UniProtKB/TrEMBL annotation:
Main localisation: membrane
One GO MF term attached to the UniProt entry: peptidase activity
Cofactor(s) for this UniProt protein: Zn(2+)
GO biological process: proteolysis
Transmembrane segments: 12-31, 40-60, 89-114, 126-149, 161-181, 202-219
Organism: Streptomyces pulveraceus
Keywords: Cell membrane, Hydrolase, Membrane, Metal-binding, Metalloprotease, Protease, Transmembrane, Transmembrane helix, Zinc
InterPro entries per UniProt: Metallopeptidase_M50B, Rip2-like
Family: Belongs to the peptidase M50B family.
Topology class, membrane: Multi-pass membrane protein
Presence of the UniProt keyword Hydrolase in the record: yes
Name recorded for this polypeptide: Site-2 protease family protein
Amino acid sequence: MTTAAARSDRRISPVFLGIVAVAAVSGWAVWTGTGHPRGLAVFVFVTAAWVVSLCLHEYAHARTALHSGDISVGAKGYLTLNPLAYTHALLSIVLPVLFVIMGGIGLPGGAVFIERGRIRGRWRHSLISAAGPLTNVLFALVCTAPFWLHALDGVPREFRYALAFLALLQVTAAILNFLPVPGLDGYGVIEPWLSYRIRRQVEPFAQFGLLAVFGVLWIPEINHVFFDVVRGVLGSLGVSGLETECGRAAYRFWENGGGEYPVCAVSR
C-alpha cells in the first residue's frame, strides 16, 4: 500500500464531519433556546451526538485492532469514522438510533469486521473488544463533567437536561456492552481465555445474544434492577434522576406537543 493510499484510508470522512457539525449547531440551538417546536433542538443534538459516539465506539475497535496487527481495517474504511463503511450499518447506526427514539436506551452498536487471525496474543484480543465500550465510558465522563465538577452555573437547564440524557445513553450502552453475553463486547473480552471447546459450543448463539438481553430486560424485575444500576452510576457522577427524566422528556418533544414540562421547569 502506498503512503498516499494509507493516508486516504485514515482521512476523516466528510459524512462524520457533517454529523459533528449537526451536533455542534443543534447544541448551540439548545444552549440559546433557538428553534421551534420546543425540544426539537434537543432531539437533533442528542441524536447527532449519539451517532458521533457510535462512530467513535467502532473507531476504537478498529484503531486498537490496527495497532494489534490487523492492517486490513484501513482498506475497509473503518479508520475514516464513516458510519456507512461499517459491515452492518443497520446494526451499528440505524437500530441504536431507533431504540433511543422509541425507548431512550443506549443499544450497543456494532460491527466492524476484525480479522482476528492477524492478531497475536489473548490480551490484544480482549483489548480490541473492550476498546468500544470504554469509549462509551469516556463519553459518559465528558457528558457528566459539568455535574461532577460542579460547573453548572450559567448552563441553560435544557442543555443540562440534554447532557444528562446523553450520559444515560452512554452508561446504558457501556453496561450492556460489557455484559459477558455472546455477541456483545463483554463476551469478546473473555472469549480468548475460554477453551476451544467452550468457544465452539457458544459460537452458534452469538447472533442471538443481543436479542436475548433485550428479551430479559422486558422482565419488570430485571428492568428495575438494571435501571437502578444505571441511576446509581449517574448519581455517583452528580446526575440526578430528575435531570435524566427531564432530558428524556425534552428529547421526546412530540409527546408534550413542544410545550413546557412543569416538573422540569426549575430555575436556571
